[in-house]
Amino acid sequence: GGLISPAENTWCPGCGNFSIQHMMKSAVAELSEEEGIPLENFVLLGGIGCHGKLVDYLNVNSFYGIHGRSVPAATGIRLGNPDLKVICHVGDGDIYAEGLDHLIFAAKRNSDITVIVHDNRVYGLTTGQYTPTSPEGFRGRSTPGGITEHPLNPLEVMLATGATHIARGYTKKVRHLKDLFKEAIMHRGFSFVDVLQICATYFNLTDYYNEHAYEIEAGEVETGRYESALGKIREWDYDRDAPIPLGTFYSVEKPIYEEKFRALAAGRAERRALVRKVVGEWR
Ligand code: SF4
Ligand code: MG
């Protein structure tokens, strides 16, 4: 109970952000209990958009980044304190448009952070403009004639650029979503969860997702193999009338950025101490 903050909630009724908020709350509470992680060791970051309010609505340490820039702040926080579980909540406009370069480089570095994308395929807070994952033909506030671009497949981008844990969830499958959050948070390295989030007001895709989304079964994808993950990721190219797989597509262990960086910094400090010693003796 204490994990939900008393701040007034201003999301629209029926918004998928409620599912993400409550499942993140449960994930944090359960991991704290099961893994012995103190609650104060969880840090949530938000970007700009409806999703960003989540960090005000949960009672854990939090930080607001500017539009699309919460990811590099997360890497900095993780670098400064290796005990922290750093979780970035971002929007699809926020991270696939404004912040795409930061997302790609955090994946490339295998920064030990978790990125949860509230992918409602629209800019909700600014009342309905198209984002990089809006489907072709989408008629938004800024594109009344419909957009003429094919949407980005963010899971494929993440696989290609080095993310070591890649998953997709859906806000109407809450228990599944919670399990995906827990798995992503406990993964050592860059973990990424794209969440198909219902925007009840500007782009309600509930019927479409309910009809097409399904949970990947054990053994259906070899999560340690790039080609297997890629095949599963390409099953749904975002706007075709194809089944939409939900679950973990890829998960591998690789050295993490923050540890390599610390080892390098420690090496430098050692060399400096040696130089000081030699110079001191010589004098
Ligand atoms: Fe949720 Fe859409 Fe309302 Fe924003 S505009 S709070 S995403 S339903
Ligand atoms: Mg959005």
TrEMBL record:
Pfam families: PFO_beta_C, TPP_enzyme_C. Residues 204-264 form the Pyruvate ferredoxin oxidoreductase beta subunit C-terminal domain. GO terms for molecular function: iron-sulfur cluster binding; metal ion binding; oxidoreductase activity, acting on the aldehyde or oxo group of donors, iron-sulfur protein as acceptor; thiamine pyrophosphate binding. The keyword Iron-sulfur applies. Keywords: Iron, Iron-sulfur, Magnesium, Metal-binding, Oxidoreductase, Thiamine pyrophosphate. Its cofactor is [4Fe-4S] cluster; Mg(2+); thiamine diphosphate. GO terms for biological process: cellular respiration; organic acid metabolic process; sulfur compound biosynthetic process. The keyword Ribosomal protein does not apply. It comes from the Archaea. Residues 48-195 form the Thiamine pyrophosphate enzyme TPP-binding domain. This is Thiamine pyrophosphate-dependent enzyme.
